[in-house]
Amino acid sequence: MIISEIKFNLKDGREAVIRSPRYEDIPGVIDYLWVTAGETDFLIRYPEECTKYTEEAERTLFDNVNSSENEAMLVCIVDGRVAGNCQIVWSRSLKTRHRATVAIALLKEFWNQGIGTKMFSELIRIAEENKNIIQLELDFVEGNSRARALYEKMGFRITGVKPNAIRLKDGTLLNEYSMVREIKR
């Protein structure tokens, strides 16, 4: 699904653009994936696991997502750089097409600039325009209070916990929490 450009100003006054990914974004997206993986323990990957992110793989992913009827990916561009991305995916299955999964990540230097709120607003808009979707779902890792605060601000509530779902390199086990946001019809 292709999403048109949405321009907005960050809290610091810089202009940002949210839109569907383009081939020109591939180097920036690969760099963003690598860097974000090392900035926090709250993502599901470590930097050394980013080897699958190649130009060819990203080109295929962009083609698939942009031509899909049941998913959309957005990138946020600030000063010509990929600052973050988000995605929404829903099933075509009759039993589960009322549910959509969302995910988001941002480079740390762009935290607290309003990007997460703007991207989530767009994901919610996409869901609201789909008559089948009545529920958005996401997961977050224990200790990620910033993400939790954003999700709660956007109307999500905790619905469950997966104990010890994440094991860090040092052996620390972290729970993963599931959240849901209902789409009012």
Sum up the structure in keywords:
8 strands, single chain, 34% strand, alpha+beta, 185 residues, 8-stranded mixed β-sheet, 4 helices, Aminopeptidase
The shape, in one word, is globular
What CATH calls the topology is Aminopeptidase
Poorly predicted runs = none
Calculate the terminal CA-CA distance, rounded to whole Å: 22 Å
CATH superfamily: Gcn5-related N-acetyltransferase (GNAT)
Structural class: alpha+beta
How much helical structure, as a percent, in the residues?
25-40%
Reading off the top of the CATH hierarchy, the class is best stated as Alpha Beta
Measured by DSSP, the beta-strand proportion falls in: 25-35%
Q: What is the averaged pLDDT score?
A: 94
Element-level helix/strand string: EEHHEEEHEHEE
Number of beta-strand segments = 8
The number of helical runs is 4
Strand order of the largest sheet: 1-2-3-4-5-6-8-7
Count of individual domains: 1
Structural account:
- This protein has 185 residues and is of the alpha+beta class.
- The protein has a single domain (6-182), classed as 3-Layer(aba) Sandwich (Aminopeptidase).
- It has four helices and eight strands.
- The chain has helices at residues 26-39, 55-67, 115-129, 145-153; strands at 6-9, 15-19, 71-78, 81-90, 99-106, 135-141, 157-167, 173-182.
- The protein has an eight-stranded mixed β-sheet, sandwiched between helices.
- The longest helix has 15 residues, at 115-129.
- It is globular and about 40 Å long.
- The mean pLDDT is 94.
